[in-house]
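Working notes for the structural subgroup meeting. M.R. asked for a predicted model of this chain before we commit to crystallization trials. I am recording the input and output together here so anyone reviewing the notebook later can reproduce the run.

Input as submitted:
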Amino acid sequence: MQIDWPRACETALTTLAQAGAALLVARMGVDWALHRYKKEKSWERKLGVYSEAIRALGEIREIIDQRLSAYMLAAQLPEPVREDLLARMSDAHRRLSEVSALGELLLPPLHARELRQVARSLSLNRLLADIDVEAMVAEINQIGETLSTLVPAAREELSLATASEEPSDAAP
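Returned structure, recorded in token form:
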């Protein structure tokens, strides 16, 4: 039996080309899937940073508001309430500090810097000290300003729609 070398070489080359194309397509598929996975994980981490920062800032603002309200009503907060507020404030401040550190890695520099600045400027000892209404109002305003820029920035960066932008369930 004689081997038809031209035909055998053609078959071998065709098989190699098909295998090479299959490997290339498989590699491209794996690269695409890995890229998408990393992008989704990055999105989830950014969402976590933004969410935790917004929650912590909201809680700090709420605690300062409670303290100011008690002051305005000339009421002395009972010691257990003060201790609870201090524990909550400490926890919220710790979370804000942690999330601002993560923000340095994951968020755009402008937002990361803003988070870092607000975390540093908020006073943990405010609840233990005498009431400084001006400072507390300034902190509430600073938190409000930070939230007013952070929330829209998070929506934009994460491509989240606001309630008014969401599509209606009704068919046109």
